[in-house]
Amino acid sequence: xxxxxxxxxxxxxxxxxxxxxxxxxxxxxxxxxxxxxxxxxxxxxxxxxxxxxxxxxxxxxxxxxxxxxxxxxxxxxxxxxxxxxxxxxxxxxxxxxxxxxxxxxxxxxxxxxxxxxxxxxxxxxxxxxxxxxxxxxxxxxxxxxxxxxxxxxxxxxxxxxxxxxxxxxxxxxxxxxxxxxxxxxxxxxxxxxxxxxxxxxxxxxxxxxxxxxxxxxxxxxxxxxxxxxxxxxxxxxxxxxxxx
Length: 244
Prior knowledge:
By secondary structure, this protein is mostly helical.
């Protein structure tokens, strides 16, 4: 696999970075929330992220932005894990209560439904309960964003591109797309990096993923941006445009 010097690669990527902030917002909120098998993710519209990470990014302080976005991503991961643990704990507790109820019914001849209801009265279950348990165990202050892990990793990657840390950026774009299936611009950036490295097959694979996102997008707000990236990447892979 051919390797290109870092500077031309950085310049080529930076030429396609101008829609960074607006693109990520479209990726967060642009998909239709239709309840069918073609839906990508459940996306909540929460407005513009306003924290030290984004402030540093807008100010061009990419060193600080890189650190802050990665801290945001770690905070989001801790929250995700805590939520999973809370749900698992509630499920286990509920299963134990059901087992106890069945055992009590079998031994005493009592009605299973009544025994189960009585046994589970003191067990905290439900979305509201588990969410509050998780939230208390994670640092989530007003100056740190602890949600949308994929988006935090995506912006960390954008910051690293500006710093010339191309391989670090690639890893975070890949982690971002693993965390969220709608980050089409992260797929686009991965394809650009791999194409500049001479890995056409991987670039084509990322193009296919963008195509699938476009199909699922339907009439979403980000449709024109997705089409622009798809068309440019198609031409780049076909040699119609040069990235250097």
